[in-house]
């Protein structure tokens, strides 16, 4: 028993035509429904429906089940197979959804060249920020591949960090180096605190009372060699 895809009735298998006797597959429409369609096709005003979108279309060639927009979206009309048949288009990029070209396709990859240029670990990290690799590369190019605050160029050692607001809403703000991103984190994203720090560096209060006061060079060496005391666990 089988349900007809046109009338929906549950009918015996003998009421369906074979698609392949060797494989034992049968058509989806029953014989009466197929006969009804054949009678309707004799009408010169009859228009078939697209099997993908369901819209009526003009008769275009024998055996064509798709309208032209659906056919162009599914098959590549310019690049054909060796035997002349139409070649299926590549699926869109799995990361950004952009159209992939066959000349840029790498076997076994479902990414476009732009998304493929971003390392896998960084692509996974970008999901937390609701960003695609294409958005990341675009933002990187808009910033001239430099940190937005200190303007240092990004390298293999100076990796860009995606800076975002920690309070709700957690908006993404840009790409920064690790040092500048840490400064914003320690300042609790407070603009007043950062402006106060800038004012402090421009006009140090100690220099106002003691102009020209300098520390000894040993101060830096002592800070470098300082080891904090740790209490031993009881």
How are the SSEs placed, and which strands pair?
Layout: E1 2-3, E2 10-11, E3 16-20, E4 25-30, H1 31-41, H2 68-74, E5 75-80, E6 86-88, H3 113-116, H4 120-126, H5 133-142, E7 161-164, E8 172-176, H6 178-186, H7 191-202, H8 205-209, H9 218-225
Antiparallel strand pairs: 1-2, 3-4, 5-6, 7-8
Structural class: alpha+beta
Residue windows where pLDDT falls under 50 for at least 5 positions: none
Count of helix runs: 9
Major pleated sheet: 2 strands, antiparallel
Shape field = rod-shaped
N-to-C order of helices and strands: EEEEHHEEHHHEEHHHH
Write down the overall mean pLDDT.
Answer: 87
> How much β-strand is present in the residues?
5-15%
| SS elements, strand count | 8
In what order do the strands lie side by side in the largest sheet? 1-2
What gap, in angstroms, lies between the N and C termini? 79 Å
Helix content: 25-40%
What is the radius of gyration computed over CA atoms, rounded to a whole number of angstroms? 34 Å
């Amino acid at each position: 028993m089988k349900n007809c895809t046109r009338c929906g009735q549950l009918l015996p298998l003998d009421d369906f035509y074979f698609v392949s006797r060797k494989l034992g597959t049968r058509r989806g429409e029953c014989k009466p429904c197929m006969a009804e369609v054949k009678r309707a096709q004799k009408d010169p005003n009859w228009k078939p429906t697209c099997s993908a979108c369901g819209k009526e279309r003009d008769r275009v060639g024998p055996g064509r089940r798709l309208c032209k927009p659906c056919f162009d979206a599914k098959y590549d009309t310019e690049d054909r197979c060796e035997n002349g048949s139409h070649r299926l288009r590549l699926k869109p990029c799995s990361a950004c959804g952009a159209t992939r070209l066959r000349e840029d396709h790498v076997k076994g990859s479902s990414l476009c060249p732009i998304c493929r240029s971003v390392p896998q670990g960084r692509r996974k990290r970008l999901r937390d920020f609701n960003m695609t690799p294409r958005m990341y590369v675009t933002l990187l190019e808009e910033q001239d591949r430099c940190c937005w605050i200190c303007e240092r160029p990004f390298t293999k050692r100076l990796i860009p960090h995606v800076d975002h607001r920690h309070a709700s809403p957690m908006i993404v703000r840009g790409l920064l180096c690790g040092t500048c991103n840490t400064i914003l984190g320690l300042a609790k994203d407070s603009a007043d605190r950062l402006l106060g720090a800038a004012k402090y560096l421009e006009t140090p209060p100690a220099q106002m009372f003691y102009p020209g006061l300098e520390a000894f060079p040993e101060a830096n060496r002592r800070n470098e060699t300082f080891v904090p005391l740790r209490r031993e666990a009881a």
